[in-house]
Specification:
The longest helix has 4 residues, at 27-30. The chain has a three-stranded antiparallel β-sheet with strand order 1-6-3. The radius of gyration is 18 Å and the shape is elongated. The protein contains one helix and six strands. It has 116 residues and is mainly beta.
Length: 116
């Protein structure tokens, strides 16, 4: 469990189209075997440290002739942002994907100060 010590809790969210490979016969749509798509997200303002990040598929368009195989993860999470990692494998054909994300964590307060 992430415990927040600050009374200022920030919530940031977004929705990002990762790819639309069916339009140009991209690798996710035409390829075979292990494939991945990575996209960096930058928060609208920084968190004090790495927030909790939740991802969900808000839209997926996949072929109905193959199995749907998806691995979706938030990686490299820090106070500035994170990387969305989407993976598939074998003969899965993914036309397009959109990912919704939600980040919750501590944010700085105007009264914060430090002695350096």
């Amino acid at each position: 469990m992430k415990q927040l010590r600050n009374h200022l809790i920030g919530v940031d969210q977004g929705d990002l189209i990762l790819f639309s490979d069916f339009e140009h016969d991209g690798l996710m749509w035409t390829g075979n075997g292990p494939r991945q798509s990575r996209s960096r997200v930058t928060f609208s303002q920084p968190f004090r440290n790495a927030p909790a990040v939740h991802l969900s598929l808000s839209m997926w368009d996949m072929s109905n002739t193959t199995n749907a195989r998806v691995d979706l993860q938030a990686e490299e999470v820090d106070g500035e942002g994170f990387v969305i990692q989407f993976r598939t494998w074998a003969d899965t054909r993914v036309a397009r994907v959109r990912v919704a994300w939600l980040a919750i964590g501590e944010v700085a307060h105007d009264d914060d100060w430090s002695v350096d």
